[in-house]
Amino acid sequence: MKLTIDDIKGVFLIINKIMHKNKEYLIELDSVMGDGDLGLTMCKGFDLAVEGIQNYEGKDIGRGLLQAAMSMSNAAGTMGILLSSAIMSSAKEVKEKKELNDWDIVEMGYAAVKGIEKRGKAKVGDKTILDSLVPGVKTLDKAVTEGKRLPEAFSDAVEAAQEGVEKTKEMVAQFGRAHYYGEKSRGNQDPGATVALLIFQAFRDYLN
To answer: pTM score, two decimals?
Structure first.
């Protein structure tokens, strides 16, 4: 299965639609121990990312993603910064490519993880976006290795990301405002991990 810049633009449109649909849900999750603005930040961030990539008229997917990342970096909030770093790292992975195969998508996923790790200094188990993003990417890799087509591979990735989100409920936050709550942060779902799950769902929905 080959994806072009038009497909990537389509994915961004669906991510944006899902973020707007879940705006109040993300605000509710983030209000427990955070600023309560995550839903607003994600809507603004992906509004800007969509505008950036839609304005790109070339075929180079890496360059298109770079424009999305640079546009999104203007969104306020830690998550906007982390996701723009993730997109920028993915952009560098597919620089000058006009078509993406399944393995390109997997490598973009790993690049996104590295971008977030480098910028945020967190690791799996710290109750962050990585706790759903990493298992989702690893499962995507496993599914593609097993020969599954990309739509099915992303369905598997969504399940893995969902499990990752559930596991964050038993973790103690190590970053952001939530880490000030210490043990009291246990029992609550991490909003950032939920964002990664929504992104995997957007890819699955587009491909299916």
So the answer is: 0.95
